[in-house]
Description:
five-stranded antiparallel sheet
Amino acid sequence: MGVFRFADKYAAPTQEQRERYMIGKIEERHFGPEGQIVLIEYPEAVYLKDDIDTIRILYTGFKDKQKACEEVKRLVDHYEHNVPPHNLFTTGRKAKDDSKRSTAVPAWSRMDNTVNSRPMMQIRYK
């Protein structure tokens, strides 16, 4: 039989593959974070949908159906243990963009505006 890999979420099994392998009673199982890995079992095949990496794989035949279960275990383990590293470096462009969105109030504006009955000097920004 075989393993058919589809590169993105818009690729799909051909009409011939659907008519040949993807018919009959199905059993659908969800795995991974928020159930984004879906394993759909047909009598003749198993269809694996990974919405995280947008990969689709159609496993046909008995031996290949067993490979699908191993692939699900590998993917779940990968997503649970490989948390994306937090980027500690901030570029100047990102800092500039963040400062435009910031609604923080400057410290001087939170102070009492009167000292000895005279208003404090106010700074105006363009």
